[in-house]
Amino acid sequence: MNLETYAENTWCKGCGNFGLLNSFKDAVNELVEEGALKAENMVISSGIGCHGKTVDYLNLNSFYSLHGRAISCVSGMKIANPNLTVVAFQGDGDAFGEGIAHVIFSAKRNMDAMLLVHDNMVYGLTTGQFTPTSDKGFKGKSTPRGSIEEPMNPLALVLASGGTFVARGFVGKRKHLVGLFKKALLHKGFSFVNVLQPCVTFNNTYSHFRENTYILEDEGHDPADFQAAWDKALETERIPIGLFYQVEKPTFTDLLLEDLVPAERRKPPSTAISEIISER
Ligand SMILES: Cc1ncc(C[n+]2csc(CCOP(=O)(O)OP(=O)(O)O)c2C)c(N)n1
Ligand code: SF4
Ligand SMILES: [Mg+2]
To answer: Closest ligand to 69 CA?
Structure first.
């Protein structure tokens, strides 16, 4: 299907967001062709930043959220209509700075939603300040002498918070990334994909990731093994990409609603969800 929109693309030439956007389009198209996904049942949302424009460039139902709140917005949509496939696109600053509590609680609740983080390790849109994932020593607008802080580890954070699908991809490995997105879209529960997305203007990490990443699936990693996933998440000398961990657990909406679909109940919009559930 045609996922193009008429919006003019304003990303810098060579930005890693292009690879991410095209990989996501391929993943959706392939799943639609395979009959595994209905594009009309999808809702996407983004935070604020260069990554936020992704929703302008995808011909899917979309909602521009507040900084760090895209995962919470799509969670609300999922609770109102559990038949939807919901996806949040967030930046590293957006997800792990402004919105970190929302990421932790989405994982803890096993919210049936996909969170895709454009991790360029920099605040791109605001022109180059350090973020929670910036390397120690990163020189940017707010850290001209180099960041004195250690970077946060997003995979360990989500694993420790209870995420049931934890993956890392790299825009320079497009085919592999498409495969991860397809699996994440089909996962029932909280699916987290941290995407290494170089910002060519403020933090060009292409050659670093080309030289240092390797694919977990090539080394026989077992994604059912939590301890192995944890060990891989902590690895820093080489950078593993792939599916670290996947497990099936009841989702938040399964436990809260069972077979109830609040959006199908013809109630006035002001009806509180607690009222609908208590009438079940
Ligand atoms: C609550 C709030 N704080 C700060 C800002 C300013 N702001 C807008 S975009 C942005 C940086 C976003 O960086 P990131 O989430 O990493 O996305 P990127 O631009 O790198 O894709 C900031 C700090 C804001 N809009 N709202
Ligand atoms: S500033 Fe960086 S992240 Fe933003 S569009 Fe340009 S290259 Fe991409
Ligand atoms: Mg960023």
So the answer is: 1
Buried/exposed 24-54: b ≥16 CB within 10 Å, e otherwise: bbbbbbbbbeeeebebeebbbbbbbbbbbbb
pLDDT in tens, 41-91: 999 999 999 999 999 999 999 999 999 999 999 999 999 999 999 999 999
CA 92 to ligand 1: nearest atom: 16
What domains are defined for the chain?
20-278 (3.40.50.970)
What ligand 1 atom has the least distance to the C-alpha of 47? 15
- Dist CA 48 CA 22 (whole Å): 20
Question: What are the φ and ψ backbone dihedral angles of 157, each rounded to 5 degrees?
Answer: -60, -50
- Tell me how far apart the alpha carbons of residues 170 and 165 are, in angstroms, rounded to a whole number: 17
Q: What is the distance between the terminal CA atoms of the chain, rounded to a whole angstrom?
A: 38
**What is d(CA 71, CA 110) in angstroms, rounded to the nearest whole number?**
12
